[in-house]
Structure formats: C-alpha cells, structure tokens
Design brief:
Blueprint: E1 19-27, H1 39-48, E2 53-56, H2 63-70, E3 85-94, E4 97-102, H3 115-125, E5 128-131, H4 144-147, E6 154-159, H5 165-178, E7 182-185, E8 198-203, H6 208-217, E9 220-222, H7 228-239, H8 241-254
Parallel strand pairs: 1-2, 2-3, 5-6, 6-7
Antiparallel strand pairs: 1-8, 3-4, 4-5, 8-9
Bound molecules: zinc ion (ZN) (2 copies).
C-alpha cells in the first residue's frame, strides 16, 4: 500500500513559462459511493470544459487515485499526463465534518478522527488541508469554532453544490478574516458537473506541487452554481447510492 505520495520530483520536473491554469479542486468519482462517474469520464469532462487539472477527492477513499495510477491517468511524480494534471486527494469525514486533503494519497483509516489529527497526518505526509462548505448547515462542514483551531491551508469559499448561497458568502468572509487562500470547487458527483466552478491559478510549474503552491499564493475564482438539472442529478445520486456502490465495487474488482 502506498502511504507517501511525492508531489513532484524537482530533478525531473520541467519548469515552463508562466501559465494560467484552471483547476477544479473538488471532484468525486464512483469510488466515492455517492458519485456516479468513472475517473476516465471525469478527466474527459474536465478537458472538454477547458480545465487543466482536477483533484479527485472521494469520500474517505483514495481508490480512484490507485486506479488512475494503474491506468496511467495520474503520475506518482506529480507531472501531468498528456497535458492534463490529476491531483491526488480525499475528502475525509472527520469527527467534526468534511475536510479536503490535497496532494497526497492518505489512508482510509482517517475517517472519524478529529479534524486536527487529520490535518496533522496530511501535513506530515506533505499534503494541504482545505475546509469545504464550512457553513452549509445541511451538509457536514467543519463549523467555525473548530475551524478557528485548525492549521488550514485554505477555505473553499465557493462550492457549486452549496445548499444556500449565503453559506458560500459566510465562507468567503471567514477566509478573508483569517487571510486564508481561497478555492472554488464544483463538488461534482457526476462528470456533467465537473468544472462548473474552479480556481484559476498562475504558475510556471505545471505539476501537483506547483499547482498547490500556486493555490496557497491565491488565484481567481470561477463561480457558477450547478444548474437545477445538475442539482437534481446529485440528489438523485444520493438516493441511489446502492447502485453506485455496486458499480464502484465492480470497478475495484476489475482492476485487481
Ligand atoms: Zn463535503
Ligand atoms: Zn465533496
């Protein structure tokens, strides 16, 4: 089992001219149980939407990361594949709510641990921690009293699937009050929603390492909400988790 996951190999990494990259830092595959699209579909959809990178952030599992490494869609040295970059990640259900861990493959055993402990493990592994949808009262975001205590690397101030827009506004105010980097993410659970919201970054280092460093410097946010149809689809997915679970299990089996 892979535990560490190098963001990039400075010796191998090619430095490019300054470039503008569109990155969706919050995407679920069907390994997520409530997601319905396969990793290949997500990458194809992201490319079609004009993105340069996505972070695969399934709930409490890095199975999609392993799958994408095996299929050659994600490189362990953090470099892009055919001009597209997949950043390893996971959305951990901590004891106090959801936490996006980006840049490293982390073990599933983090589920249920205190957020502070998950931050410690992610940081020790070399990854970054971003709080998604912290004010969404209808989803398990980490609330302000706990956020205040966490060594966060960023806040998701725009979540395209947020229940109420004011929950995003509050996240923005919180990030501003702490001077934390901000991201926008689609929280896509279906390929159709990938890239609805994303973060625009400037960097001369097109690698997982470079993109995360650029995120910490700050970028611009592309803020669009899921359409009514996409929202319906997400809700529909939640109702039919069992079907997704079967597909995910089948996919996992197939790759062994
Ligand atoms: Zn979440
Ligand atoms: Zn999510």
């Amino acid at each position: 089992m892979r535990c560490g996951f190098p963001l990039g190999n400075a010796g191998l990494r090619t430095l490019n001219a300054r470039m503008t990259l569109k990155v969706d830092f919050h995407v679920h595959s069907y390994f997520s149980m409530d997601g319905v699209s396969g990793p290949e579909e997500l990458v194809a959809a992201a490319r079609a939407a004009g993105l340069h990178a996505l972070a695969v952030t399934d709930h409490n599992t890095c199975e999609a990361v392993d799958y994408m490494i095996e299929r050659g869609l994600l490189r362990e040295d953090g470099a892009p594949v055919d001009g597209f970059l997949v950043i390893p990640g996971v959305e951990v259900s901590t004891a106090e709510g959801h936490l996006l861990c980006l840049g490293r493959r982390l073990p599933a055993s983090l589920k249920g641990l205190p957020a502070a402990e998950v931050c410690r493990v992610a940081h020790e592994a070399g990854g970054l921690c971003v709080a998604p949808h912290p004010y969404d009262l209808f989803r398990a975001g980490i609330r302000e009293n706990v956020l205040d205590t966490l060594p966060l690397d960023g806040i998701e101030v725009f979540n395209a699937a947020i229940t109420l827009k004011r929950h995003n506004h509050k996240a923005l105010e919180y990030a501003q009050s702490r001077g934390l980097p901000m991201i926008a993410g689609s929280d896509a659970h279906h390929a159709e929603s990938v890239g609805v919201a994303y973060t625009v970054l400037e960097t001369d280092d097109f690698s997982a390492d470079g993109v995360l460093a650029a995120m910490r410097r700050g970028g611009e946010l592309q803020q669009r909400y899921l359409s009514a149809r996409q929202t319906l689809r997400k809700t529909w997915n939640n109702w039919f988790r069992l079907r997704s679970r079967t597909r995910a299990a089948r996919a996992a089996k197939k790759r062994r």
